[in-house]
Backbone:
């Protein structure tokens, strides 16, 4: 065999209980477990083509060639699947996103989920979903959560083998949407990978990690019971706790802009007035507002009125990674 090819599509995910900090950087074993939903409508499509004609691995993102650290991260995944399949063919990886990169929507999650699945399938490896999730994790921690569909938990695990993500409820279980209020689409200064390295410098990180099983359990309960008020409380608390760690690390990471705060305050006001929605923010200034689908139009309309909100992306719960064609 001298040419092997597969294309996979995956969605980013938004964490309700967030991953921040690793206990092993190399293996991307997190300090705490996390829970997320996949974001339908936002898509990364990745083709991996192993061919005897390639002299080295190459990577193109949105048709632009990428070298350096970005390519190294991809080669790490390719090396693992090549070793598992017992082949040495180099590969061309081509990935396209239909959403802005580097703006607090974790593009690396969808990218590494799609890369992992396309690589495994191209080489004819018969791997379980959990094994693909572990492979995606080695590229980007949150990518482990974009492999399974719907509502997903990434287990802390006590080893590499036990540290993978799986569906805790299918997308049909609860019609939630993520209304993303875009306040800036410029590239973030400190990406999550560098951020994770700083987490342990915050004196608050230990307290956050120790309390995570409690928040995970409350979040699971809120999802199982479809209790929007409970979910909004726990996801806001979790996001605030992660940002407290970010802001108190050395050097301090401050991702919020004045518009970020303006949205957070409005969402809290709506909740106090009875409109159930909750905010959560990743390593960027944009605000993800989670609510039930029946409230999405109302929430999106209200978000648009807030000065500084440039655009709203509305994303229902999405599927996991899948092979195309
Ligand atoms: C704030 O998975 O992007 O979005 O493993 O270095 O690729 P790497 O980091 P990444 O970190 C995500 C951080 C977060 C929270 C979350 O999605 O859980």
Residues:
């Amino acid at each position: 065999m001298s040419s092997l090819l597969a294309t996979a599509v995956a969605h980013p995910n938004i964490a309700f209980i967030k991953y921040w900090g690793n206990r092993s950087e190399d293996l991307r074993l997190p300090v705490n477990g996390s829970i997320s939903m996949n974001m339908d409508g936002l898509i990364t499509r990745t083709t991996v083509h192993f061919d005897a004609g390639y002299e080295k691995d190459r990577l193109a993102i949105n048709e632009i060639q990428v070298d350096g650290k970005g390519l190294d991260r991809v080669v790490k995944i390719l090396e693992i699947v090549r070793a598992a399949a017992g082949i040495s063919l180099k590969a061309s990886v081509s990935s396209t996103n239909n959403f802005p990169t580097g703006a607090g929507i974790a593009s690396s999650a969808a990218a590494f989920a799609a890369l992992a699945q396309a690589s495994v399938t191209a080489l004819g490896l018969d791997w379980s979903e959990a094994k693909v999730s572990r492979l995606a994790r080695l590229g980007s921690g949150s990518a482990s959560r974009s492999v399974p569909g719907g509502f997903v938990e990434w287990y802390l695990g006590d080893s590499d083998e036990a540290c993978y993500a799986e569906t805790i409820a299918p997308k049909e279980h609860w019609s939630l949407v993520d209304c993303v209020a875009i306040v800036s689409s410029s590239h973030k200064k400190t990406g999550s990978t560098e951020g994770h390295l700083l987490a342990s410098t915050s004196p608050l990180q230990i307290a956050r990690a120790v309390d995570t099983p409690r928040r995970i359990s409350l979040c699971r309960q809120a999802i199982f019971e479809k209790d929007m008020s409970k979910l909004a409380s726990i996801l806001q608390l979790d996001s605030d706790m992660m940002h407290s760690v970010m802001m108190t690390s050395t050097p301090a990471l401050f991702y919020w802009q004045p518009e970020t705060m303006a949205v957070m305050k409005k969402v809290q006001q709506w909740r106090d007035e009875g409109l159930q929605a909750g905010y959560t923010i990743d390593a960027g200034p944009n605000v993800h507002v989670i609510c039930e689908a029946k409230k999405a139009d109302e929430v999106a309309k209200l978000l648009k009125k807030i000065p500084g909100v440039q655009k709203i992306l509305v994303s229902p719960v999405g599927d996991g990674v899948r092979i195309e064609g």
